[in-house]
């Protein structure tokens, strides 16, 4: 169902009904852009922490507009053994409903607009028929202003919408406006003596309207009602109507009711998000971090500075989330799915060993045909996201004894994927854990290097040439992470750079320590987690954004480490999950099943869980090298969080020739490894 401003009010009941009866719903959004500064590679550095990724997206993505929102509800019909779907495609635009309502500024990114236009996106519907919205703070503020104006009008203060007999004397009229006001008085005198019931004055300026209100309020204390009317073309004029006291009060009440109705209309699409939140239903998305951030930012409240505060807000708005991209990137699906982009995922879950779910579109709703691939229409993307979830959830039923063809979205088999949002391109932290602490890789093989602005990638390769294969992850023009192939070479690199003048090398642990010290200097209270995985309460609010830089001491460049100090190139990178520290102990857990036989199924699930089928990949067996994410990937939903790093990791030998800074992360033609992009430990 396509929903615009024209049919939004009559469609609301259908939306509420669909949400109330749904077993789960899928969502998707389309945006006016992704990044206002950094390119996708810089915005999604492979060694970001969850805090850094959140900070980058908040800083560089939230000034864009989410202007199309797709929802598809899924309800399982036991009698038909199929899902009944109700798709909605909302066009959203923050149209101001009056002069005091927020006049939102947003930006567009030409590549995103061009991409959506190539997909047939209808921008006229966004700007001409988009549904307005207000976040909670804006709504409260406008309601308070409306109530204040009502009190002012009742007391004869301010600009009244009707004539009140409270003025003590005539208003001061500037000399140049006296003729204009006298003509208005003459027209009103004529209205009171003839048979006409109303008078429409000619359009005039805001100052002239104010003079008219003040003058008529004094000159005609009774018998007329005066209000400003706005045409469809935004022209404003004053209408004068003959009334008695009873009619004046009735019109006053109508005016208040109309203002409240306009205010409710201005809340607009936010009412749908409130309904989703109130329902408590499972919300499914694909690579949905950006969708969640934009939804909260536009329709609830500005995003908080701190990641942990964002998690708390997210849990208030969406108590249960599931990301199909993370699900598809996790065992047992990782072994079966080669490409986790939404379009390719939808194709692959139709094939064996998966089974296409049986679905039927409810009567009165638009039926999507997946063969036509209406990709990047938010309603369609939400629809196929839900189909992918159903197929993968049902596949988990094959691990039960006896196997089950249908797995409920409330099943214990699905719970391990709840409230974990996919983090694209981060090599060793695959997801953001919304309900607890995030994974904490030690990154002992990573160095933080600061250097002069003139340096290029080739300079870093030359500097670390004695250490074999490295990976360079640029942070800005004067700093980068350098990942060594062997952890035991880190201290050698530190020793050789001790007396360097033009650059500075720190371990990753020192970099993190310095970052935390900077945050404390800015008055930010570090977050701590209890043994039960819940964050300990704090009451000191953040006063400014987290600073992720580190003080740099740049000195004259020295020579590279000597070859004689180079370690063995045959030792593998210790990039497995032994390098992680966990705030909570995590091990194999028994899972309840949906089958009443109980014991046999529990043993089956325990066996599968013990084998690690909820991990994303096997441990790496590559040696003597360091991973570089593949940058030559197709962008998904024109989003940096939509880029599909499908687990292909290249191993790059430090080149002997110089390159340009523009080629900082260019992939060499070295041999590729089948090592996964990330490995998830048995933390569930």
UniProtKB/TrEMBL annotation:
Region (Disordered): 146-169, 516-536, 558-684
EC number: 3.1.13.4
Catalytic activity entry: Exonucleolytic cleavage of poly(A) to 5'-AMP
Sequence ranges of Acidic residues compositional bias: 629-644
Gene3D superfamilies named in the record: 3.30.70.330, Ribonuclease H-like superfamily/Ribonuclease H
Segment forming the signal sequence: none
GO cellular component: cytoplasm; nucleus
Residue stretches of biased makeup (Basic residues): 658-669
Top-level division of the source organism's lineage: Eukaryota
One Pfam entry name: RNA_bind
Name of the top EC class for this enzyme: hydrolase
Compartmental location: Cytoplasm; Nucleus
Entry GO MF terms: metal ion binding; poly(A)-specific ribonuclease activity; RNA binding
Segments forming domain Poly(A)-specific ribonuclease RNA-binding: 436-512
A GO biological-process term: siRNA 3'-end processing
Record keywords: Cytoplasm, Exonuclease, Hydrolase, Metal-binding, Nuclease, Nucleus, RNA-binding
UniProt-listed PANTHER family: POLY A -SPECIFIC RIBONUCLEASE/TARGET OF EGR1, MEMBER 1, POLY(A)-SPECIFIC RIBONUCLEASE PARN
Protein name per UniProt: Poly(A)-specific ribonuclease PARN
Organism this protein belongs to: Cyclopterus lumpus (Lumpsucker)
């Amino acid at each position: 169902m396509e929903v615009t401003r024209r049919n939004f009010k009559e469609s609301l009941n259908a939306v509420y009904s669909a949400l109330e009866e749904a077993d789960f719903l899928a969502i998707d959004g389309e945006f006016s852009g992704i990044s206002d500064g950094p390119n996708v590679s810089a915005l999604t550095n492979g060694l970001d922490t969850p805090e850094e990724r959140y900070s980058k997206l908040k800083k560089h993505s939230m000034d864009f507009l989410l202007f199309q929102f797709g929802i598809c509800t899924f309800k399982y019909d036991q009698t038909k053994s199929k899902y009944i779907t109700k798709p909605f495609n909302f066009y959203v635009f923050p149209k101001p409903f009056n002069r005091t309502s927020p006049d939102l500024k947003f930006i567009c990114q030409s590549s995103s607009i061009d991409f959506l236009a190539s997909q047939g996106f209808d921008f006229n519907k966004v700007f001409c028929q988009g549904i307005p919205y207000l976040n909670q703070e804006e709504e409260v503020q406008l309601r308070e202003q409306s109530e204040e104006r009502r009190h002012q009008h009742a007391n004869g203060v301010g600009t009244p919408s009707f004539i009140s007999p409270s003025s003590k004397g005539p208003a001061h009229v500037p000399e140049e406006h006296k003729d204009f006001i006298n003509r208005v008085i003459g027209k009103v005198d004529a209205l009171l003596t003839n048979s006409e019931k109303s008078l429409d004055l000619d359009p005039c300026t805001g100052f002239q309207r104010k003079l008219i209100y003040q003058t008529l309020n004094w000159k005609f204390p009774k018998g007329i009602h005066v209000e400003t009317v706005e045409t469809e073309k935004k022209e404003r004029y004053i209408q004068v109507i003959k009334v008695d006291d009873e009619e004046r009060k009735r019109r006053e009440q109508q005016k208040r009711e109309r203002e409240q109705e306009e205010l409710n209309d201005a809340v607009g699409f936010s009412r749908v998000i409130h309904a989703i939140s109130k329902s408590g239903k499972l919300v499914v998305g694909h690579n949905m971090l950006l969708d969640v951030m934009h939804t909260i930012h536009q329709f609830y409240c500005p995003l908080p500075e701190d990641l942990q505060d964002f998690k708390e807000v997210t849990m208030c708005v969406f108590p249960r989330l599931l990301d199909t991209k993370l699900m598809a990137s996790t065992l047992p699906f990782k072994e079966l799915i080669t490409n986790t982009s939404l379009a390719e995922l939808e194709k692959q879950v139709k094939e064996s060993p998966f089974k296409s779910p049986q679905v039927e579109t409810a009567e009165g709703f638009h039926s999507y045909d997946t063969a036509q691939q209406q990709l990047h229409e938010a309603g369609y993307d939400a629809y196929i996201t839900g189909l992918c979830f159903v197929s993968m959830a049902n596949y988990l039923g094959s691990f039960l004894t006896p196997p089950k063809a249908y797995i409920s979205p409330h099943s214990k088999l699905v719970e391990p994927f709840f409230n974990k949002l996919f983090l694209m391109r981060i090599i060793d932290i695959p997801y953001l854990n919304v309900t607890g602490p995030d994974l904490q890789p030690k990154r002992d093989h990573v160095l933080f290097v600061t250097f002069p602005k003139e340096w290029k990638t080739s300079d870093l390769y030359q500097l670390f040439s004695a250490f074999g294969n490295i990976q360079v992850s640029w942070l800005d023009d004067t700093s980068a992470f350098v990942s060594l192939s062997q952890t035991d070479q880190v201290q050698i690199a530190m020793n050789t750079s001790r007396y360097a003048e033009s650059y500075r090398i720190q371990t990753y642990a020192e970099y993190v320590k310095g970052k935390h010290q900077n945050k404390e200097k800015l008055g930010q209270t570090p977050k701590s987690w209890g043994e039960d995985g819940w964050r300990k309460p704090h009451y000191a609010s953040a006063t400014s954004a987290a600073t992720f830089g580190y003080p740099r001491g740049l000195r004259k460049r020295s020579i590279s480490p000597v070859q004689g100090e180079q370690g063995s190139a045959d030792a593998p990178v210790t990039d497995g999950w032994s390098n992680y520290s966990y705030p909570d102990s995590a091990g194999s857990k028994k899972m309840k099943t949906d089958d009443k036989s109980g014991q046999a199924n529990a043993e089956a699930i325990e066996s599968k869980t013990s084998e690690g089928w909820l991990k994303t990949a096997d441990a790496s067996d590559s040696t003597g090298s360091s991973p570089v994410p593949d940058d030559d990937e197709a962008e998904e939903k024109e989003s940096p969080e939509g880029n599909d790093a499908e687990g292909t990791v290249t191993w790059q030998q430090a080149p002997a020739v110089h390159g340009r800074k523009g080629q900082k992360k260019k992939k060499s033609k070295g041999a590729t490894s089948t090592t996964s992009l990330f490995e998830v430990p048995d933390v569930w």
